[in-house]
Amino acid sequence: MLIESLATRPDLLGPALELGDIGAEFMRHDPIADLTRATRLATRWPEYFLVLLEDGVPVARAVGVPLAFPTSERPELPDHGWDGAILWAFEDAVDGRAPTTLLALDVQVAVKHRGRGIAARALAALRTRAREHGLHRLVIPVRPTGKQYRPNETMADYLLRRRPDGYSADAWLRTHERVGGRFVKVAPFAMTITGALGQWEDWTGKVLRPGPNVVEGALAPVVANVEQDIGVYVEPNVWFEHCP
């Protein structure tokens, strides 16, 4: 399997994006995610936008951004998870601060190629790229794929679900465990999405009722306040660290 980056193969951006996206429509409306538009990442950090090819055809992508961690101001990974770490990366880029860590933003495998261990290869590719650029660790705010089927369960309780072999019952968490990833902590506020109730209906096809609402693709309920015409979704993720 060949691994290319957009630094040497910018023509792979389009095919890489065709491999899939993050899922539910509401996930596209996190304002922090606007910073990570693919064209922006391809321009600013093309060396960390990796594409895995099999017989010349893209089968997966693995995307990261560099940041400084740990520092005196950042002794721990942020509770705000994905959102918080993205802000760190862009602060460092603006301030000219030298990075020491690679943050994995996205690992996506084409649907017909899933279940073949390609996601693990993508993670290995990010670890190798971090090492090649003198970065000392790879950190990932993992979004457990099976949590959407248990949205009312706390992440702490969800993490207790294990298979008889000791690995996580969640497929994506299990992938990280199998390749040597180390659990760090839960990021309780990894992503926050707010919108008017009409927007949420457009995003989900569902009329939100007052209080918690379960919507397809969400890891936790969306809380609606009818009087204020607002729905708020706060998603927990799980921090893992991989040593390059």
From TrEMBL:
Keyword 4Fe-4S applies: no
Q: Name one GO molecular function term.
A: acyltransferase activity, transferring groups other than amino-acyl groups
Presence of keyword Transferase = yes
Per UniProt, what is one Pfam family of this protein? Acetyltransf_1
Top-level taxon = Bacteria
Q: Which UniProt keywords apply?
A: Transferase
Q: Entry's SUPFAM superfamilies?
A: Acyl-CoA N-acyltransferases (Nat)
* Domain N-acetyltransferase: start-end pairs: 1-196
Family matches, as InterPro entries? Acyl_CoA_acyltransferase (IPR016181), GNAT_dom (IPR000182)
Q: This protein is called what?
A: Acetyltransferase (GNAT) family protein
**The organism of origin for this protein:** Saccharomonospora marina XMU15
